[in-house]
Amino acid sequence: MNFDLSEEQRMLADAVGKLFEAQAEDANVDSHKLWNGYLELGLLGLPFAEEQGGFGGGQEEIMLVMEAYGRTLGTAPYLQSVLMAGRLLALVDGGTASDALSGLLDGSQKYALCLFEPDTRYRWHEPGTKAERSDAGWTLSGEKRAVLNAETDTHLICPATTPEGFGLFLIPPGASGLSLRERPTPDGRIAADIVLDGVEIAEAAAIGDPANNGALVAKIVDGAILACCSEAIGAMEKLLALTVEYLGTRNQFGAPIGSFQVLQHRAADMLIALEQTRSMTIHAISMMDAPPTQRHVAVAAAKALTNRASRFVGSQAIQLHGGMGLASEYPAGRYFQRLTVLENMFGDSNHHLTEMEKGGGLAAAL
Amino acid sequence: MELTFTEGERRFRAEVREYLLSNISENIRQSVYEERPLPREWQVESQQILNRAGYAVPHWPVEWGGRDWSAVKRTILVQEIDQNSVPRPLPFNAALVGPVVAAFGTEEQKRRFLAPVANLDMWFCQGFSEPNAGSDLASLKTSAVREGAHYQVNGQKIWTTAAHKADWIFCLVRTAQCERKQQGISFLLIDLATPGITIRPIPTIDGFHHVNEVYFDDVRVPAENLVGEEGRGWDYAKYLLGQERTSLGNIGFSQRRLDRVRALAKARRGEAGPLIDDPDFRRRLSWAEIELKALEITQMRVVASAGNPAGGADPKTSILKIKGSEILQDAAELLLDTLGPEALTAGFADSLASDDSQGLDAHSSVLSAYFTSRKYSIFGGSNEIQRNILAKAVLGLGSKR
């Protein structure tokens, strides 16, 4: 075992950190400029095999990118477009999917995977959205919920139930019958509720194999969950640093409040929660190539612990900042908002503990 | 990064397990699994078997029996020892007095002590704490006054584990009154057969007799038993803190307890159906499993890192101490809760019983294990002291002024 970064990984982490920090400080940045920065640094191709036009990065490299993303409260649709939709397109392969991946890799198109639906919480496995055959190809009807980064110019990948099983469909922006209701999330991003009202798409827009798509999406989702864990680790790291800095500079009763033991111990507990989360995420990353049940149990365990730590570190950071923690113009609150969004994504602790237990628990899986 | 064990590390784990299972007797392992007190001769027998394979003191210098294995391998070793219910090498010998003598002792002391200490032919106990020197250890008062070729020792040590089984005690004693209380402390080895030493048991809430008070009344100790320089004892004690970190998380021990919880909970009824399927019980077990797996990686991160360049202790070891004790305590609570009313009536350890297992059977050891587990967040620097260390040494939070 060895937890030190390789030379290449150190260079990647440095470069990504510099880019994200510059972007976070750039008052005039827009979504195009933001994405272009990712393209120029090679981040759009990072997780893809070289023969697919990528750079062959693995979950460890994604961890480095997402920790930096979390530290700087990134807003670009990297998780959605590259790590979810992109990696799914790469796994599915085939003509339409390959073309779509090319559009993603050259920065001209953004993608989003629409997983969740009304009243099914985090269970995406049996979509209520239906796809039926039509003269032209397929007709899709149903609703999707809280699709992060889905905007009017985003290409959507929609899971839908077909007579053959778990279908995956590419829907171009502006398709007739498609409507998006975009809402701001508390952490400065966009999520959309989507209605598919008899959306007509071509035969070739159905990608993958309905018998196998569910397993592929499961793998993508597990990877995305770990990306969220890494993002939360980056956000917690920065939030703890902000908090410690505040404790050292804020004076009350004639002393820096960081000299009070009860606050010191709270900060120590935040550090412990962060480091345990980092360790559990490292473990789950090492399990990404294990058989699906073992992989999923490890990922679910990592997300459950990340969620608990995120809520503890986030809420206690606000507490230790006092009134300043509640002020929007001070950064601590923004990190708490991001951590809260991440906690919700792909499932709360209850969901992931249930998943872990269904898989036989950590002990049985290892 | 290499986030999984290498082929060599896996092979090492398999070798260790094979050796332990085929050499340590079933009686001993069953007793450890059920957390009954271990007869002295079993502890000795087990350590000698470990020592034959280089498993007792692998972290010592090679010329004194060490093995030059990586910290990751040594961590695997201690996890296998714990998980397979093998008694650990006596920590006072292997982790405490041995490394100090090896690092600061004279050649004569090394020749005299190290081999018997490794083989448990000589059993040491630790004389650090005193009634008014617990977390504030440097306040210790037991005095050693040089008189020619001897030190005259007077004072009292407390919480001395297994003093009643030990042959020797290593002590921090005050040899000079200095301005800073950390100065003037010396590290002295004392034969417990010396006249003037009285050992009194302290029965504890777990029903066991494992700790004692040790009184020194004009005890004459040969000056040649001083380790290192007079007055440098505090430095040597601090040196120990930076030493073997491979077992701090108690990973294998907690794993063994949780395995036992799982086995018992599968066999027993809960409020409705098997206890293991009770949602609340299951959830507590799941959290313990998660925290333990995370701590196993934290443990590996601490030992695999190049370490603190300054050479002292990695302050992150405090995380191992805090979390490791909390998980052990959670596991003990789960263990107790699996038994229901039977936990009370199966009997409770009798610290005055003359038999080696102090009247314990397999069930009642669960109750004793529960009580005894409170000690893990207290000894070796309480969890509150550990949080002070994290706040100051890692986070840089200051004191008043």
Automatic annotation (TrEMBL), chain A:
Pfam families: Acyl-CoA_dh_1, Acyl-CoA_dh_N. Keywords: FAD, Flavoprotein, Oxidoreductase. The keyword Oxidoreductase applies. Residues 6-85 form the Acyl-CoA dehydrogenase/oxidase N-terminal domain. Its cofactor is FAD. One of its GO terms (molecular function) is acyl-CoA dehydrogenase activity. InterPro entries: Acyl-CoA_Oxase/DH_mid-dom_sf, AcylCo_DH-like_C, AcylCo_DH/oxidase_C, AcylCoA_DH/ox_N, AcylCoA_DH/ox_N_sf, AcylCoA_DH/oxidase_NM_dom_sf. Residues 226-356 form the Acyl-CoA dehydrogenase/oxidase C-terminal domain. Belongs to the acyl-CoA dehydrogenase family. This is Acyl-CoA dehydrogenase family protein. It comes from Parasphingopyxis marina.
UniProtKB/TrEMBL annotation, chain B:
Residues 6-119 form the Acyl-CoA dehydrogenase/oxidase N-terminal domain. Pfam families: Acyl-CoA_dh_1, Acyl-CoA_dh_M, Acyl-CoA_dh_N. The keyword Flavoprotein applies. Residues 231-395 form the Acyl-CoA dehydrogenase/oxidase C-terminal domain. Keywords: FAD, Flavoprotein, Oxidoreductase. Its cofactor is FAD. GO terms for cellular component: plasma membrane. One of its GO terms (molecular function) is oxidoreductase activity, acting on the CH-CH group of donors. Residues 125-219 form the Acyl-CoA oxidase/dehydrogenase middle domain. InterPro entries: Acyl-CoA_Oxase/DH_mid-dom, Acyl-CoA_Oxase/DH_mid-dom_sf, AcylCo_DH-like_C, AcylCo_DH/oxidase_C, AcylCoA_DH/ox_N, AcylCoA_DH/ox_N_sf, AcylCoA_DH/oxidase_NM_dom_sf, Mycobact_Acyl-CoA_DH. PANTHER family: ACYL-COA DEHYDROGENASE, ACYL-COA DEHYDROGENASE FADE29. Belongs to the acyl-CoA dehydrogenase family. This is Acyl-CoA dehydrogenase family protein. It comes from Parasphingopyxis marina. The lineage of its organism: Bacteria, Pseudomonadati, Pseudomonadota, Alphaproteobacteria, Sphingomonadales.
